[in-house]
Amino acid sequence: MRTDAWLAALAGELQRHGVGADLTGHVVAEAAAHLADSGDPPLAAFGPPEMYAAAVADSVAGPAPAAPGRTVGPVRLAARGITKRYRRRTVLADVDLTVRAGEVAAVIGQNGSGKSTLLRICAGLARPDRGTVHVAGRLGYCPQDGGMSEFLTPDEHFVLVGAGRGLSRTAARRYGRRDAAALDWAPKPGVQARHLSGGTRQKLNLTLARLGDPDVLLLDEPYQGFDRGSYLDFWHQVFRWRDGGAAIVVVTHLLNQLDRVDTVLDLTRSEAAA
Amino acid sequence: MEQDRRAQWLRGVLDLCVLGTLARGESYGYQLAQALADAGLGPIQGGTLYPVLLRLQRAGLVAARWRGGTSGPARKYYQLTAAGATRLRHAGAEWSTFAGQVGAILAQEAAGEN
User: Fold this and answer.
1) Distance between first and last Cα of chain B
2) Reduced to 3 states, what is the DSSP secondary structure of residue A44?
């Protein structure tokens, strides 16, 4: 079997086994790199695509064990009975969400199921018709888009947002660049936000949300436009922040990371019930 | 038969051998396979190695990141995490004890037959 055909068959088999599109991409790319490096025929190195796909699916099945020594702290975010209507349509019906320090919650659901609305309510940017939100500590919010000034450079953003969180100019720049580097991004001096690519704008957004180490992080699909390396880096960072004691809410439609998070809030149902 | 037995042994310790190899530094799949072969474990096929790496990554014992090569394809590099180093230390000690016990039994057997 030719390499390309084998890789295509592998991708199909992985999807058949319910492996998410993203992980499928990683596994196929890694196999392709291995075959290019070794020069081995795919059947000799990996066996038939269906068997290798089954082995991969098997190795990512079941719950991921919690990192040893991880401790969960006090409740940082408590949203109770959140209800929101737009005109006569109920977007959120009696939704509860509790996140403790050292936990990651994923909010999932179809388009229009109120994921972003819930996050905006938690961030205090929108008012629920009913229900309460309590936040213990400082809050960082990363919107899906926007939240930045087109004519400022990333460094200027760091300083501006940092000032609002009590950081000196140098500290703000240092923290901003450190978090940017963790997302494989080195901001070029003098480049204004309006000239950044979609993925890089999201990295800026995310870095700004993180400035000053907030206790609660609300992230609304912050990886749009990321290449797959940055996407992995992003999740890696999320779990590092969590292990550092942050309470994190991630709105996502990509399901292949859900088995690693602590809470999943599926809003599909509340929409259907409305 | 002997080949089968060796394969079975390897199945029980391949994850630890991977952790041990990564303790010497960050590496990617093909390079790891070569290092394990050079260490005397014989050829490790990709179909065996990568699922082990996925399990280790999911358990948080290794961390991975993609890096584009100046020549050749982008590669997924694996790195031992602090949890991985702890696991390696504990499991390494357990393996030594186990191998010593098996060795002692086999040595008695050999001595008894002589």
Assistant:
1) 25
2) helix
Per-residue pLDDT tens over the stretch B27-59: 999 999 999 999 999 889 999 999 999 999 988
Cβ contact B72:B46 at 8 Å: no
Distance between B15 CA and the closest CA of chain A, angstroms: 12
Closest CA relative to residue A217, chosen from A138, A124, A121: A138
Given B45, B59, B63, which is nearest A46 (Cβ)? B45
| Alpha-carbon span A3 to A59, nearest angstrom | 23
User: Which tokens is B103 given?
Assistant: 């060795």
Tens-place pLDDT, residues A189-214: 899 999 998 889 999 999 999 998 99
* Structure-token pair, residue B111: 């001595």
For chain B, what percentages of helix, strand and coil (3-state, to nearest 5) are there?
70, 10, 20
The sign of the dihedral angle between the CA atoms of B66, B69, B75, B79 is negative
Please give the pLDDT value at position A252.
85
| SS3 per residue for A185-207 | CCCCCCCCHHHCCHHHHHHHHHH
Contact A56/B64, CB-based, under 8 Å? no
Q: Does B67 reach chain A within 8 Å, measured CB to CB?
A: yes
Output DSSP code: residue A67.
Answer: P
Question: B58 vs A60: CB contact, 8 Å cut-off?
Answer: yes
